[in-house]
Input
Amino acid sequence: MDEVIRGKVGAGVDSERSNAQPTAAGVGAAASAGVYPRELERPVVLRDGAYLRIRPIRPDDEPRLVDLYGRLSDYTAYQRFFTVMRRLPPTWYHFFANVDYRRRLALVAERDTATGSELVGVGRYEPSDEEGTAEVALVVQDGWQGRGLGTLLLEDVLSAAQARGIGRFLAYVLADNIRMLRLLMTRVDVLERKTEEGVVALTFTPRGDGPRQAPSLTANEPREGAGS
Output
């Protein structure tokens, strides 16, 4: 299963490709949260009938991010973070959970359990080194891959970014992640594609005329031909 877009967002391992590792300055800036965009909340139904909620991330999601990371396979964790850690570092999950909802925004997919809400996927965008371009990252818990959630998170993240004046994006995907590459090719217009050391860097713009008006419930028909 390959519903992962990996990149410098939170990776911090490869200095050439990952210079957005959470730092003391970055974590401090992350604490300056903006107004929570409640309009980005919505219930969704996956193609197999499973119900989830997609909503903006909140500071109180820090422990849920730690739990989500603990449920990822080593393969999925590596695709997202360029490394496999025993536990998500405190500076990282603080950075990830605290955004300003404009320059930095993340959406989570959550489900209700007997012990409370549980995160099963996260999509986000962050400023990149290229002016006017945001970097996109995406991860879906292994058991929830192949059910259409990757498509929903990607579309919602891109739509939210467009509504905030961002129209150009960058994503890093493993060259052997054919499913995610096909998903992107069917959803975006690629402006530039580079492959280096087994990682494909895609610069792209979303297809369509701008931010979509998301329905409150998503039909559970197949959403992408690659089966993400």
Observations:
- Strands lie at 4-5, 42-45, 51-56, 105-113, 116-127, 133-140, 168-174, 188-196, 199-206.
- Residues 149-163 form the longest helix (15 residues).
- The CA atoms of residues 131 and 201 lie 16 Å apart.
- The helical segments are 24-30, 62-71, 74-81, 90-97, 149-163, 178-187.
